[in-house]
């Protein structure tokens, strides 16, 4: 009599899980394209393709205007060079490729931001499902939806920065990709300060090398446009749009909405940006030294968002890792229930799209009442609250790290 043994089903292989995820992402991208009618929008993707096309066929890169809208190309020449492949394919193909990459970056951000303690409670089989659900829900967040709707580059740059800097200190070329993101869009420049105050000299060297490489490629392939950008265009803040527009969720936008063209606005913005930058740098350094890298990076992003002359609402995709950092800090000090409530409030308020519930455009922001200014500047207000909470809880984080060093777990 023979005995037949049944071998337990083995868990999905990495290849199968990858195929499942790619199929799920492709279906999700198709749903997003249909639900949001992105074929009729994608303004920024059209501008990116215009930049790549201008390098291939003319006119001069910084003279080109998007037909019907008149938007110019505002990024360094390297960004236009990187967009040449998208300009060389039909718009529909570029749209699907670009949106798919952005959606995958949402997944990568969640995977990098959530701590190991979270993943330890999730079985290997369910991790892909958790990431897919988080990715799908994230599209409802105002900054994320706007990024997908306009075809913006924010999700790609944010994922590049986070994935680069959370790597081990001895990882090959760590910091290089941060430098590349600066070469694509100058706004990540303050992250170099974080590398300085935390004495990450190797990463700083690599970041500078990455930035200089993008500048060198720009001058090699588009010398005239590179010279024009670095001597003229880079100093023209008016190219990127109206400062008072509610979509500009920066300190500069907030102050202009209050004082418009008053003489005190610019010097106040400069002083306030320096103060905010130093405060953010202090807190980011504190978390970095406590080995809370994602929190430190997300906090440092506040310096970028607050101090930039223009921080469109879609630049605030940093709310994904910042929200995770906030939830973890609240949980560490006040427990699970307050942490859950914090997460619901944080992400829920961004789902409500408060900044678009008040009058905007045509300088109507200049006539806001006090109660209209609250939702109209809600991204800034929520960022300030996050900073305060993280500052309050930073001492607890440092103490826990110190205790773990002094009392290592028994083997």
UniProtKB/TrEMBL annotation:
It is found in: Cell membrane. One of its GO terms (cellular component) is plasma membrane. Pfam families: GT87. Its EC number is 2.4.1.-. It is a multi-pass membrane protein. The chain crosses the membrane at residues 19-40, 78-110, 130-163, 175-197, 204-222, 264-284, 296-319, 339-358, 379-398. Belongs to the glycosyltransferase 87 family. It comes from Kribbella sandramycini. Its main location: membrane. Keywords: Cell membrane, Glycosyltransferase, Membrane, Transferase, Transmembrane, Transmembrane helix. Signal peptide: none annotated. GO terms for molecular function: hexosyltransferase activity. This is Alpha-1,2-mannosyltransferase.
